Amino acid sequence: xxxxxxxxxxxxxxxxxxxxxxxxxxxxxxxxxxxxxxxxxxxxxxxxxxxxxxxxxxxxxxxxxxxxxxxxxxxxxxxxxxxxxxxxxxxxxxxxxxxxxxxxxxxxxxxxxxxxxxxxxxxxxxxxxxxxxxxxxxxxxxxxxxx
Length: 147
Hints:
mainly beta
């Protein structure tokens, strides 16, 4: 099982690269944010908790708290017994409703699936090189929960 090693005690604005994507530490929110451009308009997230049975690989449907798994592809983090595991190495999540482990879980393993969404006000570069905020649209990008 591969794990992601986040920088210890990050400072506001510090960057971290994971799977070719750059994330920035937001001290105000206590999270790593993938921030392409513009200020954050909204951050939301939902955690789904599952207790595995012996040799279980597929986690979907209703979790231990009665919530039904639903996520945007590429906008999740999966933890196995509290350890962040790596997409495509340790699990596959491609349909928005299930997560499939690459190696079977043991009975009693805890699988936590965190689905995140971040909305940004996009920043536009004007003809003269200046920047302006486009308030007519909000885009959603993924974030990483951190330190």
